[in-house]
Write a structure and sequence with these properties.
Layout: H1 2-25, H2 55-59, H3 74-93, H4 97-119, H5 124-140, H6 145-167, H7 173-186, H8 188-213, H9 224-247
Length: 253
């Protein structure tokens, strides 16, 4: 099993390398296929032996082989995070078909989060196909089933749409489609858990930024990463969260 998980980690890291391309090119509406990866400064194409996930970054000490320009640490972090995410998903859910779709969701959330942090946008090319794939997978493979997935996407997207209208731009269209995508994969219960967790985490981070960095209430904080964290926490700990919640003596007082 150790060899299996190592293989899954490496596979995730390889896909993580592609996610870095998506993070860099999707906001600029560039092709993620062509041209091939190259140094952003000297424009030298990156050779295959310098494009091995994690290993190449370490061997090159985070610099371009030709011009010596520093390579962002983001590249190795995304590769490690995606590889670790895949391995943990396989460990949690086993080697089944549904695990592949959870891994796909993880990569989509990771990519959308980083793009949102950098540019405060979440590209439709991630979320709209994600919603379709999530609904299709739920109809035939994923545990929630199509009914729960449909209402999860509808409730999540609808609730965030109302917030966007009421707040007059306080919630972006990308967030609406992102929560709908999470609902399409995880179902109604999980999308509710995701909303609660992401709102709580976002509030805590917002308060800390105001206290520690003097940021005002009007300072915009991308909400996509909080939705991603809430969705992943719901995916992994839904049972534990529900058991804790239902075990609380809410009616004592």
């Amino acid at each position: 099993m150790l060899v299996t998980y190592l293989f899954i980690f490496v596979s995730g890291a390889v896909i993580g390398s592609f996610l870095n391309v998506c993070i860099h090119r999707l906001p600029a509406e560039k092709s993620v296929v062509s041209p091939s990866s190259h140094c952003p400064k000297c424009r030298t194409p990156i050779r295959f032996y310098d494009n091995i996930p994690i290993l190449s970054f370490l061997l090159l000490r985070g610099r371009c082989r030709v011009c010596g320009t520093p390579i962002s640490v983001q590249y190795i972090l995304i590769e490690i995070m995606n590889g670790a995410g895949y391995a943990l998903i396989a460990w949690k859910f086993g080697l089944y078909t549904e695990t592949v779709f959870y891994a796909l969701l993880f990569s989509a959330l990771l990519t959308a989060s980083i793009i949102d942090l950098y540019h405060q946008i979440i590209p439709d090319v991630i979320t709209i196909p994600g919603i379709i794939i999530g609904l299709a997978a739920s109809a035939f493979i994923l545990p929630p089933g199509i009914k729960s997935a449909f209402f999860g996407a509808l409730l999540g997207g609808g609730l965030f749409f109302i917030i966007a209208v009421v707040s007059r731009g306080g919630m972006g269209g990308g967030d609406i489609k992102l929560i709908a995508m999470i609902g399409s994969f995880l179902g109604l219960t999980d999308v509710l858990i995701t909303i609660v967790l992401s709102s709580f985490i976002g509030s805590v981070v917002g308060i800390l930024m105001m206290v520690m960095f003097g940021k005002g209430r009007k300072y915009k904080i991308p909400f996509g990463p909080f939705l991603a964290i809430g969705g992943i926490m719901s995916l992994f700990f839904k049972t534990e969260i529900l058991e804790w919640y239902l075990g609380m003596d809410l009616w004592r007082y």
